[in-house]
Each structure stands twice: as C-alpha cells, then as structure tokens.
Amino acid sequence: MLSGALIAIGLTVSAQDLPTNAEPGKCYVRCKTPEVWKNQDVTIEVAPAYKRIVSYPAKYKTVTERVLVDEGGERLVLVPAKYETQNFTVVTKEASKRLEKTLGRPSVENQTVVTKEASKRLTVVPAQYEMRDVTVTVKDAYKRLVSVPAKYETRDEVVVIKEASQRLVVVPAKMKTITEEVTIKEASKRLEVIPAKYEMRDVTVTVKEASKRVEVVPAQYEMRDVTVTVKEASKRLEVVPAVYGTEVVSYQKRQYGNKMRVIPASFSRDNEVIEVKAKSAKWQMSEKAPDCTSSDPNDCRYWCYKEVPAQFEIVDKTVLSADASVVTTPECNEATSSTQCGKATYVKRVMKTPPTTREIDIPAVTKVVKKRVMVTPPSTKTFDIPAVTKVVKKRVMVTPPTTREIEIPAVTQTVKRTVVDVPASKKIIDIPAVTKIVKKTVMVTPPTTREVEVPAVTKVVKKRVMVTPPSTNEIEIPEVTTIVKKTIPAEQGTREIEIPEVRATMKKTVMVNAPTTRVVKIDPKYGTVKKRVLEKDAYSTEKSVEAKFKTVTKEVLVSKGGLTTWKEVECKLVQNTPLPINWNLGSATLTSGAKRIIDARLLPILKDGVAVAIESHTDSRGSKSSNQSLSERRAQAVVNYLISKGINASKLTANGYGENRLTNRCADGVSCTEREHAANRRTTFRVIDQK
Question: OmpA-like domain location, by residue (predicted)?
Fold first, then answer.
C-alpha cells in the first residue's frame, strides 16, 4: 500500500509538473533554478588581549632642610616734616578784555550791466536759378505704310487664265493737333525774414550791498571776597609699635610611599562552533518503482525537496578570565596607625601685628582778600543796513527772428503739337479669278506693305530751373552793456583789547617734606631639621599582549534553488549537436577560434536558462586511459570558459568518453585514413533536464 501511494503521488507530481499547452512536434526541457552560494570570511578571537604588569618599589633619601624659627620683623623710626616760608601771588583783579569797534574803508567798484542782450538777425540768401534747354515733343513719332505690289508670272493653264487675287489699299493715318501746357519754370519757394521783437524792461541793479553795523556792549565787574590759604593743612605722624608671639609649626619629617603587588592575568580554555555552510534544501527524484511498466525513465517517480543540514566547524580558543591588575598598599596609614606617619613640630616667633603709624591732622591757616571779578563779559550788538539799488532800462528780445516761406508758382507755356489720332491701316480688295483655257498669270508674291518710320517733331524751349534753394544767414548782434558805479560799504568789526590782571604778593608757610617713617629691619633666625623624603614612589609598568584571531571561511546561501518551469527548445538541441572545435594535438587548451565558436553557438542557448551537457571524444590512437583523461579535460575546458562568461555552474555538465563511442570502424588495430580518425575527434553539446 505504501509503494502504491508513493507511485500515485509520483504520477500526480509528474502530471502536474508537465508543461501545459504543449504543441505537437515541439521539445521541452525542465529548467531548475540553481542554489547560489557565496563564501564569507568569519574572524574568531582564539586568544584574548590582556595586560602584563611589572611593579617597582618606592625609593627614599634623607635631606637636611633649613626652616625659619624667628620671622624677625620691622621697627618704625619717625622722620618729622620740614616746612619753609614761600612768597605767593594773589590775583586781586582778574584779567579781562575790552571790545573796541573797528570800521573798515568803503570801496567803489565798477559793475557791468547788460542793457541790451545779444541777439541774432537773419539775412535771406536768395535761391539761385539758371536757364536750361528742355526738348519738348510737338509731334509724336509714328509709322507710315508704303504699298509693296504683288509679283506675277504667266503659266500655261487649261482653264484659269488669271487666278483670284487680292489688292491692298492703304488707308492713311489720321492726325490731330492738340494743345499742351509745358512748364518752362518750375514752382519754387522764397524765404521772407520775420525780424525779432524787442521790448524795454526795468532791471534792478544793486549799487550798494546790504551790510551790518556793530555796537559794543561793555563788560560788567564786581568786588568779591576770596579766601587765601597762608599756611597749608598738614599731618603729624605717631608710631604704634609691632606686637609679637610664638606658634608651633608642623612639618613632614619622614615621607612614606606605597607597596605594590601584581596579580597576573588568568585564562581558561573554551571552544566555539562556527557554521561554515548554512542549512539548505534541494530537489531529489526517487528511484523508479519496480512495478512500473512505462518505458519513460521519468515515469513512476516522485520529487522530494529534501533538507541538507548545515555544516559546522569547532574552533578552540583561549578566554581571558581576569586581566592583570595591581594592588597598592600605603606603607603608613594614619587611619590605622598609632604614629603620625613621620610628622614633627618646632616653635617659631611670629609678628602678630606689624608696626604702624597714626596720623594727626594740623589744620590750614587762611586769610580773606578783596578781588575784582568780571560778572558779564563784553559783547557786541549788530544792526542791519539795507542795500541800495538802482533801476536801469534793458532791451530784451521777446520773440527771436524767424523766416516765412512764400510759394512762387510755376510758369507754363501753351504749345501745339500734332499727334496720331487713328493709326494707318490696310484694306484688302478681292480681285476675282479669270478662267480660260489659255495662258494664265499666277501671283508669285502677294502684295504687302512696308512700314516707314516718321520721326517725332521736337522743339527746344528755354526753362528756368532753381539750382540752389533759398536759405538764411544768422548775423550775431552783440549785447550792449553799460558800466555802473557800485559802492561796497566797509565792514564793521570789533577788536579785543586785553586788560591785564592785578596781583598782590603775600607770604605763606608750606610743608616741603611730609612727616614719614623709616623702617628698620629685624633679621629673621633660621634652624635645620632632617627629613626622609620619597624620591620615587612605587610604580608599575603595563605591557599589552594583543589578541590572536583565526579566519574561517563560511558558505552563505544567497538564493534558494528548485524546480521552476519548462522551456521550449529546438528539437535538434536535445540530441548531440557538434561543436566544431579544432583542438591542437594532445592539448585541452581553447584557442581564440574555439572561443569564438563557443560564443556564437552555445552562449545564446544558455542565456535562455536551460542546462547543457558538454561531451568530448577522441579517436582510438593512443592508450585508453590517456584518451579518457584528454576528453575529460577538453570537456571541462569548455565548461570553465562558459563559467568565466557568467554562466551558472549548476547548468553545465562536462563528460569525457575518450575512445568509448567511436562513430565508425576505426577501432584499435584497424587501418583508417586521417579523415576517418578526425570524425571520432569531436566535441558535442545537448540540452538536458535539470534534476
């Protein structure tokens, strides 16, 4: 029952997998999408990075240090002030200024006044004329027709003695006399000057400009009391001595360093499982059922998509449990030790309050003095003096001169001339033929007319023609000026007169040098103490040990493969098709010509997604093993070239058969021609199903 069920499933799958809408006479192959893998490098840390620490103990030395046991200090000695009597000047009347009015000299200058503006006068330049001969046609040219008679000859005729003919009668042209107006003097223009218009206008001329008059306002003074210092205020210094005391000073008599203990790094062994190829699946066809009666090898089978387990690799590695470290312990800890860790004391004399001075103020001695002070400074007051003007008559052009064009009519003359009214023509008069059985006169040339040119009759007439048109000339009329006397008034100003100040000399006591203090230094006193000093504390050095890594190559599935579809192919491609490659003797290397044949024959077929089997054969010459190896290498060379062109390797199969499939009788020990042996040296390809 189980085998029956598997057969039923296989038939169902095969039936469902067959191409739909297949056409008779067409061939189909099953195309499989191949699995695409890529290699990926995975780097694993097999030994971790850690620190290696080396410790060094502390170093000490003993030094003698000089310390201050008595600061010393300062003592102030009083230096009294110095005084002297000096003469000083007191201003009893301040310096001032007095304003004095100054008057300049008036001046008279000549000023040119335009009484008549410049203008222009137009002068007419008349047009120029000349007499020219003008030919006037008084009678038009025409043509006159002159009659040319016909030419005859006598012929022997039985009936007609004179043929019918035509006679031309000239109808002369009719003439008429017409009267025509001829211009003997063309129309022109004459320019007439329109003079400019002027009028007299009043113009105001300033003969004396406006000015100002200055009047001085004197300064005002008053007497004021001024306090004068006859002895300046000063200060007297009093010394306050310094205050001293003692204090206990602590110092570090001995220094302590640190003790260091190194704890080295610790490691442990471990391993890591690396997936070098991911889990995948692939299609597999079952074996043919034993009770299958079909001759088709694909019948009685079913397809299974079986899982391909992942592949792993175990990598040993070292793991860092704890990195190297340093434990630092102080040699003397004040928190746990009963001693003061090398501290000592000594007594030192210290100045608590430095010596100072106290200032006692000495007031100034003053005296009251009368002083004349200017309350209001002198100033000036300005009065305006109006300008003096004069009215002068001035001729002004109101309208500029222009010109006016006057039309001069053309002069014409009446002339009579004869013209053709009706042109000459011709009139044909028929002459009937005379018949008689006698001699006959025959017209050889018919009568015609000849045109005779009758020239036109002309007459020369004098005509006045304007050569240069009339124009105008501008004549400049200069302006007329007159000189007027103009008085410029003198400018008034003020002059400052300095009034010197009045001083009085008095005596006063002045402090030349202020009272000061002189500092007397008290030298400090020093002692010596011994110290144990830390020259260099305990320290450690670290050295980093780098981690070690190992690279493992891992296969990663890029895209999953499987059965996809059926492809229609040419039926001849299902059979072995020759690939006409000329291999060199004993060689499996593709020549450039062989590569061109593969590019032209195989690449277009493989681009459609089908799978191809490459088969290579040799002739019977040589050993079987060498021929088998050579054929396999040749088939693989074709496959390798196709892979380099981007064809998936899963769609290519390389088979070498050596001398096992000869196409003719040329087996071992049989004598054959080179042509017959060449038929066995062949490389073929065929389209196959992908399983």
Answer: 570-691
Return the amino acid letter for 578.
P
The percentage of residues in the chain with a pLDDT greater than 70, rounded to a whole number, is 79
Angle, alpha carbons 643-638-558 (nearest 5°) = 20
What percentage of the chain exceeds 90 in pLDDT?
5
CB of 574 within 8 A of CB of 686? yes
Could you tell me the pTM of the whole model? 0.30
CB burial of 73-108 (b: ≥16 within 10 Å; e: otherwise) equals beebeeeeeeeeeeeeebbebeebeebeeeeeeeee
Angle CA 434–439–443, to nearest 5: 65
> Could you tell me how many helices (H) and strands (E) the chain has, helices first?
6, 52
Instruction: List the structure tokens of 47.
Output: 């030994």
Q: E strand or H helix at 295, and its extent?
A: none
> What does the alpha-carbon distance between residue 282 and residue 609 come to, in Å, rounded to a whole number?
18
CA distance 425 to 449: 10
Q: What is the dihedral of CA 74, 75, 80, 82, to 10 degrees?
A: -30
Query: What string of DSSP letters covers 97-144?
Result: EEEEEEE---EEEEEEEEEE--EEEEEEE--EEEEEEEEEEEE--EEE
Q: Using DSSP bridges, classify how beta strands 27-33 and 50-56 pair: parallel, antiparallel or unpaired.
A: unpaired
The pair of structure tokens assigned to 76 is 């102030």
pLDDT tens readout for residues 78-132: 778 788 887 877 777 777 777 676 766 777 777 776 777 777 776 777 878 788 7
Cα–chain center distance at 568: 58
Judge whether 480 and 116 are in contact, CB under 8 Å. yes
Cβ-based neighbour number of residue 568 at 10 Å: 14
669 alpha-carbon distance from chain centroid: 85
- Interacting residues of 674 by C-beta distance below 8 A, sequence separation 6+: none
In tens, the pLDDT along 425-445 reads 667 777 787 777 767 676 777
Q: Is 174 left (phi over 0), alpha (psi -120 to 50) or beta?
A: beta
Residue with structure tokens 């790094």? 265
Say if residue 170 is exposed, middle or buried (CB neighbours under 10 Å; 0-12, 13-18, 19+): middle
Q: Report whether pLDDT(136) > 70.
A: no
Asked if 150 and 435 count as a contact pair (C-beta separation under 8 A), the reply is: no
Q: Judge contact between 685 and 639, C-beta under 8 A.
A: no
pLDDT exceeds cutoff 60 at 327: yes
Q: Is 7 exposed, middle or buried (0-12, 13-18, 19+ CB in 10 A)?
A: buried
Please name the residues in contact with 491: beta carbons below 8 A apart, sequence gap of 6 or more: 104, 211
- Cα first-last separation, the chain: 27
DSSP 331: S
